[in-house]
Write a structure and sequence with these properties.
Shape: globular
Distance between the termini: 19 Å
Structural class: alpha+beta
Bound molecules: adenosine-5'-diphosphate, magnesium ion
Number of helices: 23
Radius of gyration: 28 Å
Amino acid sequence: MGSAVLGEAISAIRDWSVSREAVPGSRAGETFGSLVFSDAEQQKRLPKNVYAALRRTITQGEPLEAGVADAVAKAAKEWAVEHGATHYTHWFQPLTGITAEKHDSFLNPTGDGKAVLEFSGKELVKGEPDASSFPSGGLRSTFEARGYTAWDPTSPMWLLQSGGTVTLVIPTAFVSWTGEALDKKTPLLRSMEALSTQALRILKLFGSKATRVIATCGPEQEYFLIDRYFYLSRPDLINAGRTLFGAAPPKGQELEDQYFGAIPDRVLAFMADVEAELYKLGVPVKTRHNEVAPSQYEIAPVFENANIATDHQMMVMETLKRVAPKYGLACLLHEKPFAGVNGSGKHVNWSMGDDLGNNLLSPGQNTHDNIQFLIFCAAVIRAVNRYQGLLRATVGSAGNDHRLGANEAPPAIISIFLGDMLTDIFEQIEKGGAKSTKAGGTLDTGVGVLPKLPRDAGDRNRTSPFAFTGNKFEFRAVSSNQSIAYPNIALNVAVAESVDYIATELEKAVAGGKKVEDAARELLPKIVKEHKRIIFNGNGYSKEWEKEAGKRGLLNLKNTVDALPQMVTKETVALFEKYKVLNEREVHARYEIMVETYNKTINVEAQLTVLMANRYVLPAALEYAKQVGQSVAAVKAAGGKSLEGKKLLDKVTKLTDEFKKRTDKLEASLDHSAPSAEKHAKHFRDVVIPAMAALRQSSDALEAIIPHELWPLPTYREMLFVK
Ligand code: ADP
Ligand code: MG
């Protein structure tokens, strides 16, 4: 069976390379944004006053004026219909982690047997999907199932081309009848608003004319690509997104010959196609490369406003999955599809910019004198220290538990890497005042013909969960599979709180006659002293760091069950309430859904493990035992001894017995009820997961001796290396 699937995959690869078309995307410049109802398109099609009003809403956050929606609906419909659209959909991000859409036709019967294409402002602004089947964490009881989608004018509409149809997609927020947020976009927008309001107070003190501050975000997405035949032959990949069985291959990633290696032909064609699709949708993808594990890759866009970046990030994940089958591939976004090789994450690069185009986290040349930068940077340090638990909780999931704390991903302890230059400046500040900025100088390659390269003031650190990388912070504990909304929300609101604190202090001092720079110079050492424990520039993978972090009193939440309660501590709830990002009920709803999701995920994985154990692995093991038994019997019948054969038979039988016992034990562990979701989660973590791990060990031992022809599943060696 194994070999049959391998054969299919090999012929698919051959067919593909024979029939290969020209790589699309070569005229990306021309097609960029062609499927987006873009600013240019809006300007062309909207009456001048409507366009101006819409721009004010988009760039300044002003409330939408009456009449604007009708005009926009009309123009958007005309544009969409010209491009072949027949339907529109309110696209939203419920609390499940994926996006949701319900398509409605533009067609309206006129009563005389005819129909016209219509789309009103009312239909653009508000939709009412039957909300009862989306998780609400108790925010909405099923008998009051009303939920509304509300147009987000700040994120552009686009056209979904799929299955030969074209649909106008309208990014929306999703709220309950009482106005409570049932989605991720609503709190994200609220958190961006809070950050803007607070950051402007500081900018104003420094004499800036900016009228808005925007959280910016650039997420780097890691993923695996394997042949679709293998994928379709693995029930675990189809239903759990990761392999629940699978012995380590003789060659893994130890030769380190994959990272940034040449990209295989078929994969490159896939990447180019994905990029071409995303360009059309206005998603500015820029970078592609091989990642560390075999068959692992990365795609990254240029950063954008955090709201749009979050929408675009969902589109990136959907596009990766949708395009892969065209190339006979399957895209795996799970955090750990394969044990023993690196998992996948998503580095969320985050900063703040103003509407004049300045990056507030850009250190400039004489950083020690750039007081405004130091203040904003100190605000981030303070925020991450105070709300490390919240940040940790936003990246907690069953899948990410396989990564965080393992030696390939950031540790579960949240800390900040600042690099030499900034660390030095903050140390000077603590001692009484920063007088100088360490320079990087130039790099000497020792080869005359090579150009002289400017050297960064510090090296990189790959082991930090939260690193300053030049002019932005990079939150690396985020998982490959999750929406980036929660990490962004947490950063925005936590930093807003610190900026609020700093602004209040500075305003007081300035009102008392102090110069803002002097007031800031006085405040900075205090912040550094109180919050420097979060700064760590060393090796985050080391045992020593775990000890040291413990001494510093930093949280070390090793798994989701331990991390999630940090979402609902008194401090976190107060933070969300103070800045009107989420009320207490809304925070608790999200927490409950995250716990439930953890439980459901492990439950599915465990059920699937039992199913595959009984129906795939066990029959193969019994068959092999039978074959060996027959061989031993035949040798004996012919007068031989078959001593080694008998030993092998004993080994197979013993392993098989143990395997069956462990299967039954796992199955029994699932027969469990608990008084609360939290208790249930602990049972999954402490009993079910170890039982799955033990069973897998037996299976992987069997896989190592059962003949290729009998083994019912594609192996790691095949999945990761046949490209
Ligand atoms: P790295 O520093 O990780 O090697 P890049 O410098 O290419 O890589 O940046 C990685 C990501 O960070 C990209 O998506 C990039 O657009 C994003 N980024 C750069 N500047 C900012 C910023 N000011 N705010 C948010 N993201 C940013
Ligand atoms: Mg990076």
